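User: Study the chain.
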Amino acid sequence: MKNIMYTVMFLATAIVANAQNLDEVGNLSHVSETRVTGAMFKMISGIDIDDPDFAELMKTVDNLKDLRVYTTDDKGSALKMKTFADSFISKNKMELLMSVKEDGQKFTFHVKKGNSETKIKELVMFIENADIKETDAVFLVMSGDLDLNQIAKITQQMNIPGQKQIKEATQK
């Protein structure tokens, strides 16, 4: 029983520590943050609409726990965000899913795998300009019980930056 209690306490601490770490990015100056919590996703998934595509999307949305999108157009904040993203990816032992360089931007996608080939626990996307003179950056973290086949649909519906690249990444 003690082992179970210790395990639960450890997992709860790890989840809180992870959220606090992400809050560091949101607290950077010149960084905009959008966060959608599991409670909001549960509310959204409860909407009853007679559309098969929407119903399928709602099943996936119900499995989301957290979505965070950080954006900046400040060079200093973009560099700090990139450093944080690299550290976050390394610390969480995330696997590179895909990287793309097109239209003057670099996109990287990392995942923490779930319990099957198409399931993931977490998706991290980082977008930066390939031209060092440009300063825009986007850092996205999506967590839950996610199906790679559904992520592109979610990001398209929510109009999240990099949705074209997410669609390409999840179809490979």
In short: The chain has one domain: 2-170. The chain has six helices and six strands. The helical segments are 2-26, 38-45, 52-62, 75-91, 148-157, 163-170. Strands lie at 31-37, 64-72, 95-102, 105-113, 119-129, 137-147.
